[in-house]
Amino acid sequence: MKKSLVVLMVVVLLAMSAVPAFAAKGVPPQPTAPNKGGQFTLVGTIAAIDGSVVSVTVVSGNPIAKPYIGQTVALQTTAATRFLLTTPTGTVVITLADLQVGQNVSAQGKLASGVWTANRITTGALIEHP
Fold first, then answer.
1. What is the rounded CA–CA span in Å between residue 14 and residue 126?
2. Which of 11, 16, 65, 107 has the highest local Cβ count within 10 Å?
3. Strand 104-112, strand 115-123: pairing
4. How far apart (Å, rounded) are the C-alpha atoms in residues 59 and 81?
């Protein structure tokens, strides 16, 4: 009987010592999820346009683009790339020919084997340069 009581007390004490760990506020840091598929999102300024390649100096972006902040990346465009202009009244479709050096843009696409392929380039956004 005494052994059972001692074992019960040990179990209760162990359970009570675990309660603060469960009651702790906040969530433990989670590991960052890798960017699956090489999907990039970046914001920057057009540095050059050469045929179907739009070179953008990166100001900010997702984890794939962050190492390139301050650098210029060459965004390959294809027939499937969408070009958009953001205006105070909405967003309108434009063409590659409407883009100009010096414009601020945001871009999304895929980085694979060192090639940045844009599926969307939007101009007209305000960018705060560091």
1. 57
2. 107
3. antiparallel
4. 21
pLDDT score for 127: 74
Model pLDDT, residue 27: 44
The burial of 72, by beta-carbon neighbours within 10 Å (0-12 exposed, 13-18 middle, 19 or more buried), is given as: middle
pLDDT (0 to 100) of residue 2: 57
Least Cα distance to 123 among 81, 87, 85 occurs for 85
- Name beta bridge partners: 16: none
Distance between CA atoms of residues 44 and 75, nearest Å:
12
Structure tokens at 82: 């969408």
Q: CA distances (Å), 56 to each of 46, 48, 100, 112, in order?
A: 4, 7, 11, 17
Mean pLDDT by 10 residues, the chain (130 residues): 54 51 47 64 97 97 95 97 94 96 96 96 79
